[in-house]
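tool_call: predict_structure(chain=1)
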Amino acid sequence: MAKFTKRSAKDLEKMAGFRKRTTKDLEWITSTMKSLEQRVGRLDAERSELADRLQEIADRAEAVDVRLTTVSTELARQIDELGSEVNRDDSAGVDSDAVAEIFTELRDGQTRLANEQARYQIAFRQDLANLVEQLRRS
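tool_result:
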């Protein structure tokens, strides 16, 4: 048969102290868990927002790239047509200096378009790198 012994006041104090410490530790753990859950929620929302922004930037860069490609293609087609017209009209006494000036202007315009396209691509890559870095930090 089991023997029951009465606990001393000192033993009861130790048990009460242990219970208080355990309760205090459990409250701290619960509080910390709630805080961490909130932080994870905020970070997930930020990550989602950054992903949306990244997609928006990618879409805009794609639109700019399509537009620049379209303009470049049209410019090249116009230069080709102009060259054909010059060859056709060359026998009619077209001013070759005026034609050369037009070609120079067209070439300069095409160069500016190419430079602008390169700047957009560089800026897009930098934006992507920045967003990736922000996503890595979060």
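agent: Residues 9-89 form the longest helix (81 residues). Proceeding to next step.
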